[in-house]
Structures are given as C-alpha cells and as structure tokens.
Amino acid sequence: MHSSGSSLPRKATAVIFDCDGVMFDSRQANIHFYNHLLEHFGLPPMKDSDVAVVHMATAQESVRHIFRGTPYVEAAQAYRTRVAYTPFIRYMSMEPGLVELLEFLRPRYGLAVATNRSNTIDEVLVSHGIKDYFDIVISSLDVRHPKPHPESIQKILSFFDLSPKQVLYVGDSQVDRSFTWATPRWIATRPRPQGFPLLLTRTGVSMLTTTLKTCWRSRTSLGWNRGRAFLLVEWVR
Of the candidates 81, 78, 48, which has an alpha carbon nearest to the alpha carbon of residue 66? Predict the structure, then answer.
C-alpha cells in the first residue's frame, strides 16, 4: 500500500480509479507479458479467451489460468516475480485526457487507485508521470482478497475516513461491476446493471472530465446513451 501522506478534510469526497482499461489501454502489454512467460516454458501463446481473462485477473490468477494443465504452474509463478516489467510498459498507452482529468480532480477530491495489478503498478504510474496525483494506491499485494472482493475499497475508505456514498469509482470490466455490487452505492461500469444507482462506463476520460466539471459546477446528475456505452454520473452530496 502506498500513500502520499496528504491530509484531507473529513468531509471530502474521493475518486477511485481502476488501472487497466480505464487509465491505460494495456491489452497489448498484457499479451506480450504473458506470452513471454509461456514462451519461456516452451508453450504456445495465449488464445483470445485467455487474453480476456488476464486483462481482469490478478497476476497470480492469470498465471494459474494460462498454465492450467501443465506442470509449470509453480515455476511460472516464481519466474513471473523475477521478470522486469519495464520492457512491457512501452506497449501501454495512457488514455487521452487522463492528465487533464487528474489536474481537475486533484484540488477538489482525494484520489486513489484500486487495481488487481501487483508489483507492476508503481512502475506503470511513475513511468507515465502520474503517481504523485494519487493519495493512495492499493494493489493485489496489499489485500488478502483482491477485486472483486471489496477489501481494496474498504482500505481506501478507511484511509480517507469516508463512507461509500462519498466516493466515485471508475472501472471498465465485469470484475469492477462485481466489485461495485459488493459495496453499496458505488459507481461502476458498463453494461448498466438494472437498479444500480451510480454508473460509469468506458466512454473515454475526456468525456468524463467534461461531465465531472459540469456536475461539480451545478451539483446535478447527468446521464445519456452514446452509442452502446451508457454514462451516468450522479453527484454524491
């Protein structure tokens, strides 16, 4: 667990970000990284169905999945921890508008990251120059139960001394959807689950910046359909 040590007002609100698929398009980085592990043990590359799994799962879960049915699971787990992630960061691309969004949010809200990445998250944030925007970063190594279990969120709530209704969560996957359902009154992702009060989808952080600015100024809620993606931001009072 990493925190900036900043002091925030007790009544402040906070925005919590997932990493992969929200702040970064990391699909190609994941493909190269896990195919490298497979190649090291003389195995063929991942299938498309495997790629979908490793995009959402923890590193440990991903290795278990792609090495299932082989005698290399434990050896692959050990090798994974020794592989430097630096060569794979170049395959990641930061979402356009992310820095603008963080610049807008930073003076107004506490900022956090809740991710199923493990020992790679710090290097990813530092290499893209955005680590200092966040007050606290929770990875899968900081909890006994990674997402979709709500332990990560509980740690962040405790850090800020906030209740769930005072925060906004930004995610992109089924794991995030389950994650938000596990904790009452969260903002989740696409597709829209019926009856869920606060939702956020992958329409791009540039649109999110505009929406949050409007919500912040007017203290109102906004929602609309844009193609297949549904975006709803409800201001939490």
Answer: 48
Q: Distance between CA 110 and CA 15 in Å, rounded?
A: 6
**Are 136 and 153 a contacting pair, CB within 8 Å?**
no
pTM of the shown model: 0.72
Give pLDDT tens digits for 107-156: 888 999 999 888 889 999 999 999 999 999 999 999 998 887 888 888 99
| Bridge partner list, 15 | 111, 168
Q: Residue 54: which H helix or E strand, with range?
A: helix 48-56
- Distance between CA atoms of 122 and 141, rounded to whole angstroms? 12
Fill in the amino acid letter for 129: G
**If phi over 0 gives left and psi between -120 and 50 gives alpha, with beta otherwise, what is residue 98?**
alpha
Task: For 47, list phi and psi in degrees, rounded to 5.
Answer: -85, 165
Opening angle at CA 23, ends 17 and 24, nearest 5: 140
Give 26-71 pLDDT, tens digit per residue.
899 999 999 999 999 999 999 999 998 998 888 999 999 999 999 9
Model confidence at 176, pLDDT cuts 50, 70, 90, reads: low
* Distance (Å) of CA 68 to CA 48, 57, 74: 16, 15, 11
Chain CA centroid to CA 5, Å: 21
CB atoms within 10 A of CB 195: 5
Q: Do residues 136 and 1 make contact, with C-beta atoms less than 8 angstroms apart?
A: yes
Residue type at 34? Answer: Y
What is the total residue count of the chain?
237
* pLDDT value for 213: 64
94: how many CB neighbours lie within 10 A of its CB?
Answer: 17
